[in-house]
Every structure is written in structure tokens, then in C-alpha cells.
Amino acid sequence: MNRDDLLQLLTLEGLALLGRVHYDDKADVLKLVSTLRAEGHDPALVAAVLSQAKLRRRAALKFGEFAESMLFTEAGLEQATRLSVAAQHAERFRAAGVKQVADLGCGIGTESMALASLGLNVAAYEIDEVTAAVASYNLAPFDTAEVMQADVTTLDTQDFEALMFDPARRELGGPARERAVRKFNPADYSPNFDWVLEQARKRPTGIKLGPGHPHEGIPADAEAQWVSVDGDLVECTLWFGSVAREGVARSALLLGKAGTHELTSATFTRTDAPLGERGEYVHEPDAAIIRSHLVGELAEQLGANLFAPEIAYLSTNIRVSSPWMRSYRVLDELAFDRKRLKAYLRERGIGVLEIKKRGSDVSPEALRKEMALKGENAATLIVTRVGDAHRVLVVEPIRGSAT
Length: 403
Description:
The protein is of the alpha/beta class. It has 3 domains: about 5-60; about 75-265, Vaccinia Virus protein VP39 (Rossmann fold, 3-Layer(aba) Sandwich); about 280-395. It has 13 helices and 18 strands. It has helices at about 5-10, 10-20, 30-40, 45-65, 75-80, 85-95, 110-115, 130-140, 195-200, 285-290, 295-300, 340-345, 365-370; strands at about 100-105, 120-125, 145-150, 160-165, 170-175, 180, 205-210, 225-230, 230-240, 250-255, 260-265, 280-285, 305, 315, 325-335, 350-355, 375-385, 390-395. It has a 9-stranded mixed β-sheet, sandwiched between helices. It has a 7-stranded mixed β-sheet with strand order 13-14-12-15-18-17-16. Helix 1 (about 5-10) packs across helix 4 and helix 6 packs across helix 7 (about 110-115). The longest helix has 21 residues, at about 45-65. The radius of gyration is 24 Å and the shape is flat. The two termini are about 35 Å apart.
């Protein structure tokens, strides 16, 4: 979205039209455009409204019903924190007794919305003019939040009680500014990651990062938390000062329909799960557990073991349950031979096949196509290693395990 698009959307006509139009994948978009054009609306406004309506539909995953009253940019939506996660961030500051937070690199304003909803005073800064205007719109209902357009590296962070950073990990390219390119090197973040760390060590601070942030890039004086929402790994956040918890070096946080769960470690030293035989049950840990290197801690809780080196599948001989994993009962184990596997599936009339894999370069989509499935039955396969052997496990999901 460019400046002209935003200015049109913020007119009375634009906001009224946006309130009427709801994007639906099944809708006849051409017919809708024709109808709006016939009503006399400017073509550029119609295009801006439809683009925004489409973004609102996508945003429902992160913002629920709030998405229908917000404005978005393409890149802003991609990087925006989910409201449920932003609420966890805000609670950290509130619990630490913080009264005022500077949201430095506020994007479309998600973190600031959560902070302001708890009554904290928020000074939100965003370098991009359009994104700052969008954040102002989204934060308009909150009297304790103010948005300013500024390069945060020019600010004196000592003026603020606490800080929240969300360094830009994408840059827009192309004439229409519609293509987002993810940045994987922390040195390329905006603002620069080293500068962010320097500020973070001066006062209570949270730094939101991508979930793939390297462990070697995590300072020893920070608490690192990986967050999963219903099994979807969404971020790694570093906490400093009073918003970092004593005795917690790293943690995995699971937010979901079944509640909130957390697993923690007091050190950054990785504990490996023991290696043993494959049992009757195989367990797939949540991505937050894997990424936070807490597989060993989970295995200890469950009395489980790995059955292949460096492959994050756990196993037990008895049925165990945990919100941190999906569990399966092993029905059969086969050598990974495509012809024999195809015959095996055909003999059993398998027409629907779920394929999971870890420690294998097989493409589930290509393998499924190669099997030429026919039949009315369904099956689940895990393509992995058992010990040093490349194997296929035929499994049945355990109902009630994490999803």
C-alpha cells in the first residue's frame, strides 16, 4: 500500500466502502469491482479497498475479530505479532511493574495495542510513513498510546522506562512494493541487531526475533523464549532486565485452544535425550521444543528416548501424553524401498496417505504421487531413520495428542 492508497482509504467514502466490502475467496471479484465502479467509486479507491479487505481476511488468523477494524500493509501483516502472543509480551512488562514502554519499530502497532490495553503508556515509533499512519489508525482507540514517525536509532532510549523491539527482518522490493524478502542475517536487521542489544542492556527490554534466530547469537544475559501457537512456531523473543525471569535461560511457550504450557531450562547448555530402541509409540515434539533445544528435558519428563541420533522423534513402550507432542502407535516398520512400499499400500487399499518425515530428503508430495494410490482406506507414514537405517513407520495417530 502506498501513500495515495492510504489517503483514499482514510476518506469518509473510503472507510464507508471498506466497512461494506468483505473479501471472500469464493466471491466473484470481477462482479464486485463492476458493481462498485457502477456506483461511481474511483477505480483506484476500489482497488485499494479490495486489497485492504483481502489483507483483513488474511489477518483474521492473527487478530481474530479485531482484524475487521484494523488497517494493514502487506509487510506489516507478515511481521506483525499475533495478538495472543503480544498479550503475553505486554503481561511481562505489567508484571515487572513497568508503566511506560517505547515500542521501537512498532510496525502496524500490534505490540502497542496489547501494551495499551493493559493501561501502560506507549510511545510507538515507526520509520516508514505509511506504516506509521496505519499504526496511528489501529491505536486510535487507546488514549495511552502515541505514534511517531522516526528513525529509532536517532532517539535517546534513556528517555524511556522500558523498550520493545521488533527489528525489521524483511525489505520490500519491486516497483509496487509488494514483494517481501526475509532477512536471515541479524547484521542486516533494521535497526542493526548489535545496536538493539546495546540498548536492551540498559533497561527492561523485549526483542522479538524470527524463530530461526541462531543460538550462538543469543547473549548469555538474556532469557530466550520460543513461542508456538497451536503448533505453529512463530517467534523467538529475548528478554533483558526485570522482564527476564530469574533462573530461566531458555523456554518454550505453547499457546493454544487447550491452554498455555511452558517448559524451561536454567541454562543455555543443551541436554540431549538418551538414545535407545524404538518402542511401540513414537512422539513428535512441538517445534518450539525442538528449536529451543529442550527435547532432552521433554524426554526426561516422559521417560522417553530418541531412536536415531539427532532425529527429534521420541519413543516409549507405554502410552504417554503431553501437550508438547503428537503421538503415534507404530503398526509396522518397513525398509525404505519404494517398490515394496507401493505394493504394501496397494495390498491394503490405501487411497489417502499422510506422510511425515524427518532426517530424510524425500519429498512427501513426490512420494505420494509415486505411490499411485488407489483404495478407500487411509494411512499415516513416518519416513525417518531408526538407528542408522532409513525406514518407514506405518503408524496410527493417538487421539487427544497435541495438534
